[in-house]
Amino acid sequence: MITAQIKTKRKSLNMSQQNLADAAGIPKSTIGRIEAGITNPKVNPLLQISRVLDTPFIIDGTNDGNNSNLYVEL
C-alpha cells in the first residue's frame, strides 16, 4: 500500500512526520492520517509528498518489485 511506502521512505530518510509536512506544505495531521490509512489521500498531497521524498509517484496499478516508486494499488 502507498501508505506503508510513504512511511518507510520517510523513515529511511530519518524524517519526522512534521519534517515531511513542513517540506511538503501540508498539515502534519494529514501525513499522520495518510500513513495510518485513515484517509484516502488526494493526488496533490501525494505529489507534494513524492517530491519531498524524491520518489516518483506513478499511478498505473503495478509494482516494479524493487519498491523504488510509489504506486497506488487499483
UniProtKB/TrEMBL annotation:
Lineage: Bacteria, Bacillati, Bacillota, Bacilli, Bacillales
Protein name: Transcriptional repressor DicA
TM spans (from-to): none
Gene3D superfamilies given in the database record: lambda repressor-like DNA-binding domains
Pfam family, one: HTH_3
Natural source organism: Filibacter tadaridae
Gene Ontology MF terms: DNA binding
HTH cro/C1-type domain mapped to chain residues: 6-62
SMART domains named in the record: HTH_XRE
